[in-house]
Amino acid sequence: MIRLGLRIGVLSGFRTTLPTLVTAFAAGLGTLLMLLLLSIAPAMHARADRVAWMDAPAAAATSAVPDDATFIATSPDYLGGESVTVVDLAGTGPGAPVPPGLTALPAVGDVALSPALAARMSSHPDSAGRYGTVVGVVGDAGLGGPDALVAVRGVDLHEAMLVGTPVQAFAAAGEVFQVQGMEGVLIVVAAVAMLVPVLLLVTIGAHLSARSRERRFSTLRLVGATRRQVTQFAAVEALVPGLLGVMLGCALFVALRPAAAHVSYDSGRWFVRDLMPSTPALVVVVVGVPFATMIATMLTIARAQRSTLNTTGRSRASHVSLWRMLPLVLVLPVAYLLVSGTIAAQVFGGGSNRSTAVAFALIVVAVLFAGPWLTQAAGTVMARSGRAGLLLAGRRLTDEPRGAFRAVSSVVLAVLITCLFIITTPAVAETLASTDGSGQRAGTARASIFYASPEQSETVRRLLSDMPGISAPALVYEGTLESSVGAVRAWIGDCDAIRQGARLTDLPCGKTPVLATAAAVDTLAAADANGGGTTLNSVWAAEVSSLMNPPVGVVNQITVPAGPVTPIPSLGGADMPDVIIDPHAVGEPLSTLRPTLLVMNYANDSALERARTVVLQQVPGAYISTRQTAYDGYSQDVRRLYRIITIATMLVFLVASFSLAVSALIGLVERQRPFALMRAGGAPLSVLRGVVLLESAVPLIVGAVVATALGALVGLWVAAAAGGAMSLPWVTLLLPVGAGLAVCLLMTAASVPFIGRITDGNAARFE
């Protein structure tokens, strides 16, 4: 029975082999995508577990040093613009725990580097010796991925106690980063959108052979086959493409895993071995895909079971009514109220992300529901034309509006996601390659030297001032001004030195000891309401102390005497000060504090790398930031998400374009004889080709235009609610959309050459 089913239903010629191949290809794509999607969670968990040892829990303040503990502290660094994680370690005894990836704790002055960092440092000679003497390599067990840049160095126990936290056992399980809000919704919707064209392909494969399958099964019934035997034939015919698809999908998954490992949201590449679904998920996919394809095919045999003579008529598809547009009309004002926050507080407790997600979901459902009517309306307009191609294509769209829109629905969904994401992420649309999110001036660097004593800070400043390519290093005492009207950031330091080191050329130094932006003037006035001066909080005592053992009577605030204030324009960016105070205004109390920041100019990247090396060698836990690295902290997640959404969208376009091409072929196969008769009657081949192109292109373009308009509209609402500019980045918006639509149209045009072969003279014969 199985052999006969294979010969009749799979290997009996082009009409059976083509649907089998199409369905197998669709099942293979579905298997591949599901395996990739189901591999994300295990990979994220594996990565989080491997780097959990770096996230030491905060310890309670105590003067006791635990026995056999390891003090650990992490700090950021940059090498050639790439982020590096620096881990400082020191053990308190022979039984101190060793983190994964190492065989022993590094000695003082020694460092173990990740393979990727060792390779990077070999191409940056200015970083030589930055972290210490290289004595080993950090193994994969302690790294998040093959591109992880990690330096694990041994430091003096006293320094480690200053900056670190003691642990007696490193964590083995980490917390997975959670994508929330609108970003999470877009990722989920993008994943669903990737599966939609695959499901469509499976349906197309079943539909492609439906007519021939009905004839085969009816013939089998006429020659005496029972219903059970016909069902067995159908099961064999349906199971083969599913099994072939699973094997193809698994093979593609193994082959494409190295490429998929390059696509990551939270950091660099994955380890390829991490991209593997759990065993239950793998079993579900391997068993479920053939079962789903078999069910989709088995549903088509009902007609043959009911009518052994194959005389069941094919009714004309019913038209869709205008009421399908009603949900879209009603959803738009509701979506606006949700996005603007008018009803978000009452329904979602003020959660703008959740309300935006709900609004987006409503828009998607309404568009997909209204799509068939829009397709039918476009077909009606085309059918009124006097041109033969438009007339024939229009009649086809009005007769089958649901099927015509179903073929392009995944593309419409991809367009909607792309437009909404670009509009709702201004950092992507407007500042993808800009650093305007940071107020720090170009060509300047800031060294955070929180754990340096005043003497160490001065030593670092002197070393940097003598270094070629580094100029105007200036020490800054950081603090916070708090009052009833808010809090602002304050810098204490020589105004001229700060102006040169931070390149704040507009500072009117010398007018008054205190300079303040307009936003800070009210804070100063409120803080000095009694005329006794302004209290500066969050300053740090000259004595560098450990969080484990804070000194008694530590100074964490000083008073700046009352005096005139010179207003200055905003320096821009959350990383810039609002108040600059001259040291003379503070007087003697400044000697009880220590500077925690050093600003400077650098001439080139080589000088910057040398400065980083000097600072990290002198001060534990220090790091240097620039304008670009500060901006990266604001935008890197958005840019990575944009890249992933773009890749997912292009994949949707590619799969959907194949679906469109196969749909066009189905239309040709179903109308082979009418097209052949029209061609025999004198219809030009160019007209028939135009009909096929119009049947696919018109619903595609209509749906894409509507999706672009709605995505842009909702995106503008979201931007306006967030206080953004009401502008459309048309180039950024239309580039991926236009490229995807062009791919879809080209794939559809690929079916045109088959028209001449399918509609030759033999197809018009009735014998």
Name the descriptors.
alpha+beta; 25 helices; 6-stranded mixed sheet
What does this protein structure show overall?
The protein has 767 residues and is an alpha+beta fold. It has four domains: 1-51 and 180-314, no CATH class; 57-167, no CATH class; 323-436 and 636-767, no CATH class; 452-619, no CATH class. Helix content is 54%, strand content 12%. The protein contains 25 helices and 16 strands. The strands form two sheets. Strands 7, 8, 9, 10, 11, 12, 13, 14, 15 and 16 form a ten-stranded mixed beta sheet that branches. β3 (110-113), α3 and β4 form a beta-alpha-beta unit. α21 (627-670) packs parallel to α24 (730-749) and α23 (685-721) packs antiparallel against α24 (730-749). The radius of gyration is 34 Å and the shape is elongated. The model is unreliable at 58-62, 307-315, 344-351 and 426-433 (pLDDT under 50).
List the helices and strands and how they pair.
Elements: H1 2-9, H2 14-50, E1 70-79, E2 82-91, E3 110-113, H3 115-122, E4 133-137, E5 150-154, H4 157-163, E6 165-167, H5 181-208, H6 210-222, H7 227-260, H8 279-298, H9 302-306, H10 326-340, H11 344-348, H12 352-383, H13 388-399, H14 401-424, H15 426-429, E7 444-448, H16 454-465, E8 470-483, E9 486-492, H17 495-501, E10 514-517, H18 518-527, E11 534-537, E12 557-560, E13 565-568, E14 579-581, H19 583-586, E15 597-602, H20 605-618, E16 623-626, H21 627-670, H22 672-680, H23 685-721, H24 730-749, H25 754-758
Parallel strand pairs: 2-5, 3-4, 9-14, 10-13
Antiparallel strand pairs: 1-2, 1-6, 3-5, 7-15, 7-16, 8-9, 8-11, 8-15, 10-14, 11-12
Helix pairs in contact: 1-7, 2-5, 2-7, 2-8, 5-12, 5-14, 5-21, 7-8, 10-12, 10-23, 12-13, 12-14, 12-23, 13-23, 14-21, 14-23, 14-24, 16-20, 21-23, 21-24, 23-24
